[in-house]
Amino acid sequence: MTMNADYLELSDVRVVFDGFVAVDGVSMTVLQGELRFLIGPNGAGKTTLVDAITGLAPATGSVRFGRTELIGKKVHQIARLGVGRTFQTATVFEELTVLQNLDIAAGAGRRPVSLLRSRRAVPPEVEQTMETIGLAGLRDQQAGVLAHGQKQWLEIGMLLVQDARVLLLDEPVAGMSADERTQTGELLRRIGAERTVVVVEHDMDFMRSFASSVTVLHAGKVLSEGKVAQVQADPRVQEVYLGHAEVTS
Question: Which pTM does this prediction carry?
Fold first, then answer.
């Protein structure tokens, strides 16, 4: 895919559940290499918007990755186009090792019988991903005994070996230690340089440290958008977050 085609463009996206408008005409464009944070109070529509992009929530409007329309496509078709997401709780195969988790993800197109076959060589993309996510030294460790942050990194790695070009990460640092948060931010910067990354986040310190741009949702609409400093200075954002001093400090 050409560099120019690597962007995510939403136009008038709406999601309605039983008459309740969860996402109300959201338009935004996220470019390759941009670390976009999506913030907003609970119920603002952040996760529902990600669900709409990935085919999990029925939506109207337009979601285009490059020149391809995603709305109307099935979840597996959207994933195959290179759009990957993580959830608030990491979904890894706990009984399998770090290497096996990545190998299965990388071999999503292989026949099941060959997935766990031991091979003489580790595929180069798996080897490279283990280095990228900082788990090369834990390749034979069962995923179930990894630290909380390491499980999140492994889940991101499982998207990387599938060559996901768009990454939608739902609260990736929730429950992490300060150290893990910093390492995660640095990981997102590394992988975000060549991909289109959207991070749904509640941790405002984390956002201030690592976001290159921010979209604020409120009641299903875009309330404000821009660089971190611009958004924090926006009186409408301050009003919505009134009483949440960590946001406006």
Answer: 0.88
